[in-house]
Amino acid sequence: MNHIALGLSLAASSIAFGQVLAYEPFEYPAGNLSGKAGGLGFAEAWDQAVSTNSVSSSSLDFPGVPNIGNRLTEGGNYAENIRSLAQTWAPADADNPVATEIWMSIHAAVNEDNTHDPFFECFTGVTLVRENGDEALRLGQAWSDGVWGFSQPFVSDVRSTVNMDTTTRLLVVRMLDPGTGAQDCLVDFWVDPPVDGGEPVADPSLSALIFGGGFNRVKVASGNNGGATWLTDYDEIRIGVSFEEVTTGTPSIAYEGFDYTEADVESNMNGGIGFSGGWSDPPPVNRTVTQGISTACSAWSSMCNSNAPCGFALSGACESIR
User: Fold this and answer.
1) CATH classification of 18-240 is 2.60.120.200, yes or no?
2) Quick one: pLDDT at residue 227?
3) Predicted confidence (pLDDT) per residue in 175-220, tens digit
4) Which stretches of the chain are assigned E, i.e. beta strand?
5) Which of 134, 161, 164, 292 is the most buried (most CB within 10 A)?
6) Domain ranges within the chain, ordered by starting residue
């Protein structure tokens, strides 16, 4: 995180930031996803690995879960974008005491313009990727079956009974990993859990064991089956350490981490969340993004934690407003 040489900052609202690890609301203009760099908890922009996915206008709304921005549309033969997280996230162990459990949620629906039977899709979803490139967990469609589920490819596939259609669904997983790296990481899965009653009870029929370990990238990808193409939408990717953080919790109303190359402020600096456009810097005052700082937010530990960005602390030289 960089800072801007300006003595004002955006204070937190009454909505708690909590312990969100990563958040992607796809708050970008409709078009190519490649090169977009908003959200929280990421180290770089979305990269195009094969053909790119796209951003579509309007979001996928799910009752009780706040959302902003637009949505991701996967599809059109094989499409893949990947993005590095700010750090590797893993369950607690002696070398990486980050969290005892990790949660992830997404909003998901078949695109209204899709004309292909989802049963014949090969795969589609949002995937957590390890440092060595292996897929830790895919949330979306496990394989060609036309229902929502999750998988660790070639290890475990869990399928719900909820058909893939244009209804927006809330897909949630919880990973409980003892940190051994063996196939002893328990994954619980929910489709449309109630979001106002606290952490839901797991259904053993929707749980499975996968190989545990950390992940440091997020991939959005789809693969075709026999040359067929389809369109599937995803939105509001949240990774956190509690059910509330990935559902009813709101990372922030507006956040600006100044995650840009050191330079004078200009209009192509358009990251963060909650903003409608890039920065303007009219004369005669000039502001410059400079190298990041790490200490100014420490006094606000009740609002932030050491593993999450502190993008809205009132700190005098930490962040700015636009």
Assistant:
1) yes
2) 55
3) 998 878 889 999 999 999 999 989 999 999 999 999 988 899 999 9
4) 3-4, 22-24, 31-32, 47-48, 54-56, 71-75, 79-89, 101-110, 123-129, 135-141, 147-152, 156-163, 169-176, 185-191, 207-210, 215-223, 231-240, 263-264, 288-290
5) 164
6) 1-15+261-322, 18-240
